[in-house]
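2.7 Reproducibility. Because tokenized structures are sensitive to small changes in the input, we list the exact sequence used for Sterol desaturase family protein, including any N-terminal residues retained from the expression construct. No trimming or masking was applied before prediction.
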Amino acid sequence: MLVNVAIALGTLLIMEGVAWFTHKYIMHGIMWSWHHSHHNAHKGFFEINDLFSVLFSGVAVGLFVAGLEIPSLWYLAPIAAGVTLYGIGYFVFHDVIVHRRIRIKFNTKNPYLLRIMRAHYVHHKVHTRDGAEAFGFLYAPKKYDKK
Ligand SMILES: [Zn+2]
Ligand SMILES: [Zn+2]
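Resulting structure tokens (single pass, no recycling of outputs):
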């Protein structure tokens, strides 16, 4: 049990690195045609960019099924749990708190949240594939604190 929790939490941390890498080198690279929709005004509720979430969910489901069905691959199940937790954290932070796709009242003085929110606003100042910064989501370096 403890091993499972450790693997899930470790995966959660690694996922921020995976998300950062994907965002910086893939979404702002070869997959800009999808991510573009998230950096520019568009019609309707959904964005082509949402397909990335669908893709990540598919990966998590695949890992869950393999981890639960194949005894020797048991560790894939807690990895899938970590990926899913990250996905939830990402969605709540990125889509609800920053981009307000679901209308809720939310005000925070939490320094950690303010820092990652600020970092993501900085990321969105650039509407092109190149030249953006702050590719992380749930972690941002200290320089994004309000001065
Ligand atoms: Zn971006
Ligand atoms: Zn965004």
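The mean pLDDT is 95.
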